[in-house]
């Protein structure tokens, strides 16, 4: 049995060490709180800017669903057929105006990039020719309510993965004094 005085002294000594350790964490807690508030402020400003900025998409009344078909151990052609069947079935449901599929959801930080050039031209400097790209299905532009200035939407019966649609900036860069319709583009990256 311990004397009550000794027990009180040991608790007081431990509490003093805890106070010192606790005080040492106060600047860290303040710094982390400041960082979180700063990040939240930047995120809020970005969201407000996105609401007022023209993105080229009309996301009102758009529902995005993520199906992990990329995890299926089936050939790409079979996976593409699965996407097409799912899209066609969704469009038959009441209340669905249009449906499509895409590799990466717009306005996220996920994207693929590659170096592109017009097939019949000399290569541009690599730092100028890197462009983001995405794989999208038929009805993508109609579903996202994106205007097509020239050319056409992908068709339901198209399965050719070498067909592409260029945005206005890419078309002007790759084909500066001519229309991009009917032209050929190639990737200069070795993996493409």
Account of the 3D structure:
The protein has 192 residues and is mainly α. 42% of the residues lie in helices and 7% in strands. The termini are far apart.
Structural class: mainly alpha
Overall helicity: 40-55%
How can the largest sheet be summarized? 3 strands, antiparallel
Order of helices and strands: HHEHEHHE
Q: Name the shape in a single word.
A: elongated
What would you report as the Rg, rounded to the nearest angstrom? 28 Å
Strand arrangement across the biggest beta sheet: 2-1-3
Number of helical stretches of at least 4 residues: 5
Q: What is the rounded distance between the termini?
A: 79 Å
Q: Low-confidence stretches at least 5 residues in length (pLDDT < 50)? A: none
Number of strands: 3
- pLDDT average, as an integer? 76
Which percent range describes the beta-strand content? 5-15%
Summarize the helices and strands and which ones pair or pack.
Blueprint lengths: L3 H49 L23 H16 L20 E7 L7 H4 E4 L6 H4 L24 H7 L10 E3 L5
Antiparallel strand pairs: 1-2, 1-3
What are the salient characteristics of this protein?
192 residues; three-stranded antiparallel sheet; 5 helices; elongated
Please provide a brief summary of the model.
With 192 residues, the protein is mainly alpha-helical. It is 42% helix and 7% strand.
